[in-house]
Every structure is written in C-alpha cells, then in structure tokens.
Amino acid sequence: MIVTSLQPSIAHDDEAILARGCEVLQIESSALQAMCHSLDASFANACRTILAAKGRVVVTGMGKSGHIGRKAAATFSATGTPASYVHPSEAAHGDLGMLVPGDVLVVISNSGNTAELQAFLTYARAIGVPVIGIASRPGSLVMRHADVALPIPAAREACNANIAPTTSTTLQLGLCDALAMTVMDMRGFSREGMKVLHPGGAIGLRLLPVKDMMHSGASMPLATADARMPDVVSMMTSGGFGIAGIIDEDGALIGVITDGDLRRHFDILGSVLACDVMTSAPHTLDAEMSAEAALELLNELKISAAFIVEQGPGSRPIPCGVVHIHDFLRIGLS
C-alpha cells in the first residue's frame, strides 16, 4: 500500500473536508448536465438498435470502464433486456465465441483507444454484429468501429491530478442507465416484469403482491351486521388486528369496526349491534396491489389495518384477506 501524508490544510478541518466532497459532486453533476444537453439522434439510434436485437446485449470494457460495463449488463438484464459482460482480454483468448449474430456489442472506454478492445471490435464487424461505442474521443479506435457512436464529454476528472477515473466513469454509468431505462420503456417492461425478475431482496419485497402476505380464511375477523357488539369485541381482541369486517348475507363487505369506533361508542357497546357501530364504505386494498403500494396507502390514510377484497357478483367487494401494518414491518418493509 502506498502511504502519503495528509494535507495539513484539510486533514483536520471538517469544513474543508465537506467542501472537497461537495466539489467532487458538483464536478460530476455538471458533467452529467453537459452530457444531457449533448444527447442527439445517435442516442435514439442506439436505443432502437438494442431494442431490435434478436439476441443479447454484450457489454465490454477494460479497467474501470469494465466495472461500469458489468453494472450496465446487470441493469439491462434486470429491466427486460438480456445482457452479459465479457472481459476484453478473455475475449481474445476464446470468449469471442460469446458474441454471435443477432447480438449487439456495447463497448465502453474513456479514451476509446484501449488496445485490448481491438479483437472484439474486429470480430463484431466480421460477423455483422452492430457496435455501440461509448468514448470521449471522436476519432478513437472505438468510435471508428462503432455503428452508433455515443460520445461522452471530455470532462475533467474530480481527482486533483486529473487522473483517477471519476467524472468519466460517472458519465459512462449515467449514459448506460439512460440507455437501459429508455429501452425498458420502449419495450413496455412493467412492474409485473420486474416482479418476475426480482423475486428476492428488497425489490422483491416491494413488488410482492399484498395477497401473498395477507391473513385469509378463518383468520379473518368477520361478523354479520346483526352480530352483538360484545361478540365482535371478543373477536377483535383475539384476532389482534384492531379491526373487524362486517359482511352482509352475500358475504360482501359493507363496513368495518376499528378500535376508534369502539372508543367512540364505548358507552353503548353492551346494547347495540355491529351495524350500529360500523363505519360504512371502508377503505380496502386490491388483491393485486403490491405490498409497497399497500403500505403507502395505509400510511397515507393513517390506518393500521385493512381488508383485501376481490370483486364479486355485481362488482361487490368480497373480503379475501386482511393485513396489519405490523405485517409489513415483519417482512422488512417500512
């Protein structure tokens, strides 16, 4: 490890440290804005080229550009466009076979003159694979071989020595994200598609249908409109949801009774029926709603529990489950 002495002017000065951090972010933000204003028809051509591919998007790059390439391939794959990353040095030693007609090759290089990319570029041209080049030098190796050239601004790196790849890699990443998100929209890739490709992790939890986490069947606290309130209170206490659904003779949800309703009618609970206490036309959740959307609605309405309903005869709401805000916390959503 190379050890250098800290600059006395910044090492023990919190304001200077914060100022330097902000300076780096401002440098990179300004470069992104410059690239945004420089996008032209070539970007649209690149998106259409990717969308029209019969095979995969193959991404390559060397060094830090390679790290960006790996992330770009992962983002494409996660948003409906099959993609993979191939290291340019490995490609020259047999992995060129991973590129086949019908694919699109995305080549990322700041200088555009990385020697290790030559074999990949030559092979792509030989088998008729279109090349999308991302580089900062218009006349470079990558841009000369590109069917669609996407130049990035030749911006100064955030490094004081103008050496460490910082601004340039931020631009590469931003441009690849822009390609992936635009193609995703052009493809019509929806939340349903995201749900299929992200069954696990935080994204999987957010896209989980609320019906997959609801309490259903005998665990639902349901009572008829003519139920005695002492019986309803007993059911609510044992259920632990703080809510009871009131249904009619056809099983349709016509109201709910919450802890708040109990407090408001405390003095008469011993002598009235459920229909006298319930709140009519309650807020409900759709069975196909995502867990994230359901939690947002509960928070927006400032309620702690709700019934999930499906449409029955005559579009009447039939309760099929119930969720409490604690159920979301239990699986890691908050």
TrEMBL record:
Question: What keywords are annotated for this sequence in UniProt?
Answer: CBS domain, Isomerase, Metal-binding, Repeat, Zinc
Is Nucleotidyltransferase set as a keyword in this record?
no
Please name the GO terms that the record assigns under molecular function. arabinose-5-phosphate isomerase activity; carbohydrate derivative binding; metal ion binding
Segments forming domain SIS: 46-189
Q: Which GO terms describe its biological process?
A: carbohydrate derivative metabolic process; carbohydrate metabolic process
Query: Could you tell me which PROSITE patterns the record lists for this protein?
Result: CBS, SIS
The record, for Pfam families, names:
CBS, SIS
Question: Domain CBS spans what residues?
Answer: 214-277, 278-334
Can you tell me which residues bind Zn(2+)? Answer: H87
Q: Does the keyword NADP apply?
A: no
**Site positions per UniProt: Catalytically relevant:** K64, E116, E157, H198
Q: What family name appears in the similarity comment? A: Belongs to the SIS family. GutQ/KpsF subfamily.
What protein does this entry describe?
Answer: KpsF/GutQ family sugar-phosphate isomerase
